[in-house]
Amino acid sequence: MLFYEYFKSWVDAYKAGTVAEVTLSKYRMTYMRLKELAPTLDLSVMGRREYQQLINDYALTHEKQTTMDFHRQLKACLLDAYDEKIIERDPTRKVVIRGKMPSEKKMKYLNRDELQKLLNVLPLHSDKAGFDWLILLLAKTGLRFAEGLALTPNDFDFSNKKIRVNKTWNYKSASGRFMPTKNQSSVREVSIDPGLSDQFEQLIKGFPEDEPFFFDKADRVFNSTLNNYLERYCREAGVPVISAHCLRHTHASVLLAAGVSIPSVSKRLGHSNVTTTQDTYIHIIRELEEKDKNKAMDCMSSLCG
C-alpha cells in the first residue's frame, strides 16, 4: 500500500468523528501534502532514510515548528502501522527535524489612545446587535472571535458584571453550530465594566435566552466580514488597520501597559498557563520592564546617602 493511502485510511478510522473539525482538517491537509511529496512511496519499503528524506522535502518550504507538527501526525500513523505489523520497524526513530528560518512576525495591536479612537467611530446602533457591538465587546473582553459569536443572553450575569465563556461557534463550517472551547482553560468568567454591562443588558433584551444574538443562525458567518468592518472603522478613525484577532492582542496589551499582572491577564484570556501569555506578549513585557528600570533608578536616585 502506498503510504499516503494508508495515512488516509488511518485518519478515517481513528480521527474522523473523534477530533474537532478544525483538527481533522489539519490531518487532511497533511494527507494532501503527503500525496504531493511522496506519490510513489510504498509503506512496505519505508525505512529511516526514506522517512528522513520525506521530512527533509517538507522542511524545504516550512518552518521547523510546522515541520515538527507534520512529523508528529505521520509518526502516530506509522507507530500504529508498526503495532499492526504492517511494517517491521519504526522508520521515524532518530529523525532529524529541520526547517527554513522563521520569518519575523510582528504582532499588530493598538495602544490605548488608538483603541479609544476606534471605539469612538463605532456606530453602535441601539436597535441591533451587529458587528459594531461585537467589535466593542471583543476589544473590552479579549474574547476570541468564535467565543464572541457563541455568546447568548444566558451567558451574561449582569448582576455581577460578568460573562460566562463556555463554548464557541463553529463559523468555519457551513452548518455552523456550538462547539467546545479551545481548551479547558478557556472555560472562564470574564468581568466587564458597568458601562458595557448596562449597554448589553438593554441591547439583548428580548432575544431568545439560548440563541446567539450577533448574527442570524440561518446565515453563514465569516471572519473576513468582521475584518472588513474593522478595516473601514480603523481607516475612519485614522489608526493602523487590525484584524479581529488583533483586538484580543490589543486588549491584553492595554491591560499590561496599565499595570495589570500577567497572571490576571492570562486568566482573562483563557490561556492554559502563564508561560503562554509571557511568550505571546514578551515584546510588551520587555518594554514595560525597561520603563520599570527607569522608575526604579529615579526612585533610588531620590534617596540621599
Would you spell out the secondary-structure blueprint of this structure?
Layout: H1 3-14, H2 21-37, H3 48-59, H4 64-83, H5 112-121, H6 131-141, H7 145-149, E1 156-157, E2 162-165, E3 168-169, E4 178-179, E5 188-191, H8 194-203, H9 223-237, H10 244-257, H11 262-269, H12 274-280, H13 282-301
Antiparallel strand pairs: 1-2, 2-5, 3-4
Helix pairs in contact: 1-2, 5-9, 6-10, 11-12
Question: What this model shows, in words?
Answer:
The chain is mainly alpha-helical. It folds into two domains: 3-83, DNA polymerase, domain 1 (Orthogonal Bundle), CATH 1.10.150; 112-290, Intergrase catalytic core (hpI Integrase, Chain A, Orthogonal Bundle), CATH 1.10.443. It contains 13 helices and five strands. Strand 1 and strand 2 (162-165) form a beta hairpin. It is globular, with a radius of gyration of 24 Å. The model has no long low-confidence stretch (mean pLDDT 91).
Features:
globular, 305 residues, single chain, two-stranded antiparallel sheet, hpI Integrase, Chain A, 2 domains, mainly alpha, 13 helices, DNA polymerase, domain 1
Concise summary:
The protein is built from 13 helices and 5 strands. It is mainly alpha-helical and 305 residues long. Strands 1-2-5 form a 3-stranded antiparallel sheet. Strands 3-4 form a two-stranded antiparallel sheet.
